[in-house]
Amino acid sequence: MAAAFQQQIFALDARFNAYRAPGNPNFKTLYIRRRSQLLRENAKFKDIDTIRKYINIRSQLLQRRYGVQDNISISSSSSRQRSSSKASLPVEESVTINAKKKNDMTISENYAFSGVHHIFDQHTDQVSMVKFANNDRSKLCCVSHDGTVSVCDVTASPPRVSYVLRGHTKPVTGCDWSASNEVLVTCALDGLLLVWDARAARRLRSVPDQLNAPLLCCAFQPANNNMLIAGNARGMVEVLNVSTGIYPRGGSSILGGRVMAIACESSGRMFWAANDKGVIVSYRMSGAGGALSKLRRCCVGGAVTSLAWSPWLARHPALLVSAADDSLYLFRVAGGEGALAPAKRFETAHRSQLVRSSFCPLMSFRRGVCVVSGAEDACVYFLDIEGRADHPVVNKLQGHASPVLGVSFSYDESLLATSDAAGLVIIWRRG
Predict the structure, then answer these.
(1) Residue-wise over 109-133: b if at least 16 C-beta within 10 A, else e?
(2) pLDDT given for residue 431 in this prediction
(3) For residue 139, which of 186, 78, 181 has the smallest C-alpha distance?
(4) DSSP code of 246?
(5) Which is more confident, 114 or 223?
(6) Among 2, 13, 329, 355, which residue's CB has the most CB atoms within a 10 Å radius?
């Protein structure tokens, strides 16, 4: 319970950080880091009544100081508010929780985070997407509207920015790692797909969009990393051969609107693309040539900003959809043509921003199945999609002061990266 109150202290300061020294962003970052350090140093303090009084008094003082109202709750009776603010702690090299212990833990305990591992602030504009490398929790890619891409080493001591990639001239909108993590692809509003050598931090290839349109999303074909799939602002879904830099014949399809998100199944034979009109279409890709075939169509009530696919333990393949009608949709994939059957809808704070969501990668030992989502209320939500419909939220992280856009779990769930509209990236450490 003390951890929940400590998280609220951090959230309170993060909210008011937006008003603190508005002309000095470096001071704001330094201040919030220092608060995180102080919480770590006082993590063992467990007098709940004193902490409750402290939060009330500090909230009143901050409201008077900056002349704004804050409605942060100080209730902690629900397990949904368990989590993180003991502060920065080193991450061990391996996770050693045995399977029996995991089975004995509730789903809330499985997603109770012990603190903020690190805060990155290298970007000057919103970080719209973060993505951990495949089977490697040390590498994190961050793409920003300031036109740069950074790759961070989050398990170094201390965590650091390994390098910053510069090549785009407009906001960067998407990225993806190859299966081996040797190659990184990025896309941006300048209409360029840039392919990078992730080990040498150098550009391998630059390919303009076929229509010279802004690019909004990109992904490697999982079974063949020589193929890239991208979506542009003129409604086209297109396939690119990385080796040749050529768009193959038959590898383009018009979806309409602005293609905002792409998600592939693990075999790579089928993928889904969605646009700002709420239209989701499944596609089949031929093995070698990259030719596309449209399959099935589905519609939701708002612009789709994120798609995520999961085999769901190979029993019920599912698609997670973030839509700008305050919704997080769960669809079951029915049949061999990617048809989507509505399963559940969850309320989220999502109207105008590029909010993303993701399945939690480990599910085999869970008493439920969880997903994680950003939100425009500056919180990160964990939802049990198999639990009670009236209480789906099992945890909530409150550390950002701006809408949370990007979310990414490391493959072993030991770390969670979240990014916001102010350019801040927070690495959370699982308990």
Answers:
(1) ebbbbbbbbbbbbbbeebbbbbbbb
(2) 65
(3) 181
(4) B
(5) 223
(6) 355
